[in-house]
UniProtKB/TrEMBL annotation:
Residues 116-219 form the Phosphatidic acid phosphatase type 2/haloperoxidase domain. PANTHER family: AT30094P, SPHINGOSINE-1-PHOSPHATE PHOSPHOHYDROLASE. InterPro entries: PAP2/HPO, PAP2/HPO_sf. This is Phosphatase PAP2 family protein. It comes from Chryseosolibacter indicus. SMART domains: acidPPc (SM00014). The chain crosses the membrane at residues 200-220. Keywords: Membrane, Transmembrane, Transmembrane helix. The keyword Cytoplasm does not apply. It comes from the Bacteria.
Amino acid sequence: MRRLIFIALITAGHVTSAQISSTEKIDLGFSQIEPKREKKQSSFLQAVKVPTMLIGLGVYSCASNDVVNRYEIREERNEHLPNFKYSADNYLMHAPIAIVYGLNLAGVKGKNDFKNRSLLLLKSEAIMAALTFSFKEMTNVSRPDGSDGFSFPSGHTAQAFATATFMAKEYGDESHWYSIGAYGIATTVGAMRILNNRHWISDVFAGAGIGILSTNLAYLTHRYKWKNKNSNLTLVPAYTSGPALYVSYRLN
């Protein structure tokens, strides 16, 4: 059961990072399908279908045990790894961000320039945070350890999959191994949230969906206006007591 769950998360992430081939005009003799409109519709569906399925699975698993029994998963954890308690997930969820900027510093160019990339990261983080905390407030699901009522969805998993999708978007075209590595890290974070007894499997599914959806929407709606190398806007990701983004604007 656990293997199937982790494989499903990796597969979902990998499918999401795949690029859509361009739509060609189809001449039927009496009408033409507009390629731009079809491409927009296909891009939107590609951006939302996998994360929506994951969120739906999370919601359903939270309300019913027909598909995935979250209590059985917790029982297996308590039986085999009752003393599992590690904090690596607090740092791994940000690892793809460090990798992306590290690769860029090393001279490996990604999909976007520094400013557009940073703005896309900021947008995805904002969307992810808004969705995650809205769900937490609305659902009020108790954690497996009973510490509070903010279990659903998993914020750590949402963060991990948002940054994994960010890395896949920026470097997935260079090599599929970047995407596989990014989603492998994210899946590890989701697994650790369960093993640390901080989240149910339903929380992890929903968190993964929210993370992927947030970054997909950020890229889908981005207009790439920040291409001027002499722009006064500066965006620099940072980490102090938590993830942060340094923003500055130079007045002429």
